[in-house]
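Exam prep: given the inputs below (a chain plus zinc ion), describe the expected output before reading on.
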Amino acid sequence: MSQALKIEGLKIEEEGLQKIHDYVESERCSHCGISVKFPGIKLDDDGVCHLCKDEGTRQEIEELRKNLNRQLDEVITKIGKRGDYDCIVAYSGGKDSSMTLLKLTRDYGLNCLAITIDNGFLSDSAIKNCHAFTQELGVDFTMFTPSFGFMRNMYRKSIENKVHSNASAKRASAVCNSCIGLINNHMIKTAISMEVDMIAGGYLGGQVPKDAAVMEMNANNLVRFRESALDHYKMHFGDEAQKFFGIPPHVLEKLGDRTLYVTNPMLGWEYDKEAIIKEISQYGWEKPSDTGQHSSNCRLNDVGIIFHLKESGFHPYETELTDLVRKGFMTREDAIGKLNDIPDLDQYSDVMQKL
Ligand SMILES: [Zn+2]
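Solution:
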């Protein structure tokens, strides 16, 4: 592993490897499996973490989920149908966003436009899935490929410098957080331009803040929100970030006094990975073999995980997977199995070369 980690200046020194080793050996919550290496985690005498103690009863969790689902239903009754589409789906070709697209189209009857951002690291099978799945569903599909020069610089800077807040680092690796920011901005810009009121992503609990099932955005809070983010990204990624993290005034003007709903419907749905794979497989989706342990679409993901681990000392999927355990959608054993299965970078020399 250490050999492959020294390509073109992106290195993991001995200290980083030790951190990864300590993480794998670390003590974990006896209920959800979260590592004590995760910031703020303390176990009580029974080895249970405070997140488990604060989680509430199974009934309360179920009630919360149903409430999120009701919020989604309400949004769907509120959205206007002035443009060509009811909803823009941020579509990665992975299993979760495929399921989101399937349910919104088939079960909710929404006329969706699926948009994929090709970040230069999508696996061949993910791209094949994007085409096959949207065709089978009869959904319009478009792919946006930002210049690779910008993407490469963005990813390198994200790995080398501290670009994101500690709160973001608890939810995803630095490369993922940068990508998510760019994708969100592109979806918002496109939705406003095309006069679409609703955007849907395929994020799960743990990947986004708890209140992200339905976010209402109007012109005022969009300006506030995006402008502070834009300055930050320009500082790290240069002036070109304007294009990928900004919303130009003429676009924003089109929003007028309308409300844009940014949603993550999966937060309100029951989650069963195997059932999802089975269901989307009926629509031409095939399980990729060329991506890695934690992503069904992106080859950069595992590399991001390694650099996150060596920097922070905990796994970027810690929140997401242990959240699924707490909600009863995954066993503790399965979650720990995934978290301790550290990607082997020897298998990602193509990704490292491109970076
Ligand atoms: Zn716990």
